[in-house]
Amino acid sequence: MRFADIIGQKDVIDRLRKAKAEDRIAHAQLFLGPEGSGNLALALAYAQFINCPNATTEDSCGTCPTCKKNSSLQFADLHFSFPFFNKPNPKETISDDFGTEWRNRLLLSPYFGVEDWTKELSKDNKQLLFSVHEAANIVRKLSLKSFEGGYKIMIIWMAEMIGENVANKLLKIVEEPPANTLFFFTANSSENILNTILSRVQVIQIPKIDEASLSEGLKHLGVDEHKIADIAHYADGSWDIAMRLRENNDPNEFFAMQFQNWMRHCYSKNVPALHAWSEKMNELTREDLKHFLLYALDQMRQNLILNYTTENISRFTSSEKAFAQKFSPFINHLNIEEIMLELEAAHRSVGQNVNNKILFFELSMRIFRLLNRKEKA
Ligand SMILES: [Zn+2]
């Protein structure tokens, strides 16, 4: 993986280049960014950049044996550690026991998240973890001499899942690693990372990917011009979500995308965007529009429940759940009844000699006012 393969994140990449140019690469770093932001992709590209003998100040060459081995995950000094399920047998389970699954998933794309990884490993809903044996495994691997003569790099994915017993066994080596050894931790949020780890790493903050970079990436892949803006907006900074939407023909996923974009335009009071959105909805069939409004009714109901309880709503998909975190506070007792009435009325009117574009635009204006009613209360 080269920096050139990374979606967006120009500022982060510049910072990494600068650290190498000034010869001050921290021996323990944390690539901290939300799911889909590319934190693991950046760690991979940085590892290749650091070890490539032909690297320019900008990027690794991508063609030398070191680069080729790095990008096919065959480089002997590039190590990985990641959470897994303990196998039921008495053998001491370590991440290498899942090395094949890991490589397959990583070679597909390094933008995947925990849910994907869980699915890759098992159909059961077991808890992923780093075992204490894994800590010993990390120490053992890094105590070996460098095979290739450059840096030994240990990439530890999902550092927030490292428990105290594992962290305690890693502290010494993270603090004083053997010569030419680098730790690249990655995590989605700092909240759950043990302080013993957090206090020993240099944190590299990785933001969500900006919409322009997502659009550029989608364009590069040859995605239909008219789909790009929708997908980039709905993906909300995640290349992983953007990729899944690219080929998705699931109507519910399409409705989820339209619903979330619609509500974002509503609560951010973006009237021109609502205009464009209503025009797009006008292209759908009567049946699809009815289906969409039923979907919207259900989402409003679920968001209301979420706003008043702390319970997990299992009916949400992961993208719906992520959206609901931000959206549910807008749905409350001041507006829910009227919102439901508006959506039901629209459901009855669709296709009955009304102009759907006007119907959806007027509906948007009313919902926009209802959502923002909260602020006056
Ligand atoms: Zn190279």
Concise summary:
This protein is α/β, with parallel strands linked by helices and 377 residues long. It has helices at residues 10-21, 39-51, 65-71, 99-108, 114-121, 132-143, 164-175, 195-198, 211-220, 225-235, 239-246, 251-267, 271-281, 286-308, 318-327, 336-349, 356-371, and strands spanning 28-32, 78-81, 152-156, 181-187, 202-205. The protein has 2 domains: 3-205, P-loop containing nucleotide triphosphate hydrolases (Rossmann fold, 3-Layer(aba) Sandwich); 249-376, Up-down Bundle (Zinc Finger, Delta Prime, domain 3), CATH 1.20.272.
Please render the helix and strand layout as text.
Layout: H1 10-21, E1 28-32, H2 39-51, H3 65-71, E2 78-81, H4 99-108, H5 114-121, H6 132-143, E3 152-156, H7 164-175, E4 181-187, H8 195-198, E5 202-205, H9 211-220, H10 225-235, H11 239-246, H12 251-267, H13 271-281, H14 286-308, H15 318-327, H16 336-349, H17 356-371
Parallel strand pairs: 1-4, 1-5, 2-3, 3-4
Helix pairs in contact: 2-3, 6-7, 9-10, 10-11, 10-12, 12-13, 12-15, 12-17, 13-17, 14-16, 16-17
Task: Quickly list its features.
binds zinc ion, 2 domains, Zinc Finger, Delta Prime, domain 3, five-stranded parallel β-sheet, Rossmann fold, alpha/beta
